[in-house]
């Protein structure tokens, strides 16, 4: 199975549980909302019941006040109730239309109230007529004796009050049950939501962990292989997953095998080069030493028989032999740079420079050194070769009468920048690059002390350390050779 498919499946599980959680939460939320809407509706029912009951009581109070004080103003609340009560009843019936028990109770209240209104209207009419005629007073007294004194109106009012109490008690009962349902649904919703959230988070973590573990384990094996390759150990990875990383594993395996073959070939060639170096250093240099000795013997044994011209030729031949030997030594040294493994160690640059100055700089030459030189983790031999060549050149080309050599160092981030300055003859700008080419020298070819290899060796060593070297000079104004060297060498 491919990695992308594993990732899709993992995310698919997470998305599936997220959708399930969304649906369940939606349904549970709707249930909570329905319970809340019922409670809100119950609040409205109770509020309307209180308004309705209050209006009926106000009508009853207004009627009693009118009958006792015989003032029309007491009937204002009565007439107001006649207008207010019917809309409230209709609204209340609309809200409780699904509850037969409440509808039955409202119908009883409405019927009793209608009966009370008929009784009240008869009393009001009789009272009003009793104030105008004697006959009307007789009718009112008869009605008063038959109904008012017997408590017909009070009985109706008491029954209506009981009905309202019954209505409210039932509504409170249902409301309390709904409140409990609401609390239960909220708790259940929270529990289900938390459980589903924990579930899909757990699945997401497990899926992600498995996918990441599978990928990182294989990537780590590839990184490990790459590190082994960089250290010269060539092996292969066994990968049977047949996914996107398999191609990378196969490529690394092929690269490792090719590098192993190339390394074997290179090792063989290095061995051949080492054999060549041995031949050059022993077999080729031996005839040169023999020739030099023969010339010396001739001069010693036949000195009286040699003409001045022959002695001059002998001196030139001896110089050429010495130069040829120096060229062979320089060439071997140049070829070995980068092939021979040098160990990295802690190097006190100031001590190295001081030792080289004491060895190469004559007593009459003044050397200016910086107050402090860095301590590096680098290859000592290479750094010694660079400073030896540059300081040696500074001595060769300095002003013989007033020789001054200045060595300096500055910190430039990941590198140190060293410079070796002399007050010698200087070098024209057109030769600044040429002097770093092997066998290139600005002196005559027959001068033994200059082979044209020293600066080439310096440039190659600095390049091997990923540094740079350059020359700043003008003819007759001395030279400054500047190079950078890493603070840490792997």
The outline comes out as rod-shaped
Q: How many β-strand stretches?
A: 7
Q: Strand-and-helix sequence, N→C?
A: HHHHHHHEHEEHEEHEE
Structural class: alpha+beta
For the largest sheet, list the strands in their spatial order: 2-4-5-7-6
Rg value = 58 Å
Give helix % range.
Answer: 55-70%
Number of helices: 10
Poorly predicted regions are 444-449
Profile the largest sheet: 5 strands, mixed
| Termini Cα gap | 40 Å
Percent range for β-strand residues = 5-15%
The average pLDDT value, as a whole number, equals 79
Tell me what the structure shows.
This protein is of the alpha+beta class and 490 residues long. The chain has ten helices and seven strands. The chain has helices at 3-69, 76-95, 100-130, 134-148, 152-230, 244-301, 308-336, 349-360, 380-397, 454-464; strands at residues 345-348, 366-368, 375-378, 404-411, 415-422, 469-473, 479-486. The strands form two sheets. Strands 2-4-5-7-6 form a five-stranded mixed beta sheet. Strands 1-3 form a two-stranded antiparallel sheet. The longest helix has 79 residues, at 152-230. The protein starts with a helix and ends with a strand. Mean pLDDT is 79; it is low at 444-449.
């Amino acid at each position: 199975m491919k990695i992308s498919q594993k990732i899709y499946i993992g995310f698919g599980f997470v998305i599936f549980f997220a959708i399930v959680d969304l649906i369940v939460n939606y349904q549970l939320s709707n249930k909570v909302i329905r319970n809340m809407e019922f409670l809100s509706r119950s609040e409205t029912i109770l509020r309307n019941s209180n308004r309705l009951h209050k209006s009926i009581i106000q009508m009853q109070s207004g009627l009693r006040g009118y009958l006792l004080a015989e003032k029309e103003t007491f009937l204002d609340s009565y007439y107001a109730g006649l207008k207010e009560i019917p809309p409230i009843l209709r609204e209340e019936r609309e809200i409780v239309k699904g509850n037969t028990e409440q509808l039955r109770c409202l119908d009883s209240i409405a019927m009793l109230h209608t009966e009370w209104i008929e009784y009240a209207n008869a009393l009001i009419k009789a009272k009003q007529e009793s104030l105008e005629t004697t006959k009307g007073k007789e009718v009112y007294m008869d009605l008063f004796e038959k109904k008012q004194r017997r408590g017909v109106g009070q009985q109706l009012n008491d029954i209506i009050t009981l009905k309202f109490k019954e209505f409210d008690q039932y509504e409170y009962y249902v409301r309390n049950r709904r409140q409990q349902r609401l609390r239960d649904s909220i708790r259940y919703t929270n529990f289900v939501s938390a459980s589903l959230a924990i579930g899909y988070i757990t699945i997401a973590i497990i899926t992600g962990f498995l996918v990441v573990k599978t990928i990182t384990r294989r990537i780590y094996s590839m990184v490990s292989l790459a590190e082994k390759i960089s250290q010269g150990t060539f092996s292969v990875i066994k990968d049977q997953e047949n996914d996107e990383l398999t191609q990378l594993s196969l490529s690394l395996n092929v690269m490792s095998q090719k590098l192993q073959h190339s390394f074997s070939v290179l090792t063989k060639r290095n061995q051949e080069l080492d054999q060549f170096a041995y031949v050059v250093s022993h077999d080729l240099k031996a005839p040169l030493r023999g020739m030099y000795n023969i010339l010396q013997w001739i001069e010693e044994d036949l000195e009286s028989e040699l003409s001045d011209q022959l002695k001059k030729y002998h001196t030139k031949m001896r110089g050429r032999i010495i130069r040829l030997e120096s060229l062979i030594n320089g060439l071997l040294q140049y070829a070995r740079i980068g092939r021979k493994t040098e160990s990295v160690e802690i190097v006190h640059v100031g001590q190295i420079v001081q030792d080289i100055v004491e060895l190469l700089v004559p007593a009459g030459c003044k050397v200016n050194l910086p107050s402090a030189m860095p301590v590096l983790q680098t290859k000592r031999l290479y750094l010694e070769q660079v400073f030896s060549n540059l300081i040696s050149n500074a001595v060769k080309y300095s002003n013989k009468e007033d020789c001054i050599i200045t060595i300096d160092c500055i910190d430039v981030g990941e590198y140190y920048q060293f410079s070796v300055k002399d007050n010698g003859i200087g070098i024209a700008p057109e030769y600044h690059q040429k002097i770093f080419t092997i066998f290139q020298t600005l002196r005559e070819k027959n001068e033994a002390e200059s082979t044209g290899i020293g600066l080439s060796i310096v440039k190659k060593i600095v390049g091997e350390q990923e540094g740079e070297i350059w020359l700043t000079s003008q003819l007759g104004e001395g030279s400054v050779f500047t190079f950078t060297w890493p603070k840490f060498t792997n």
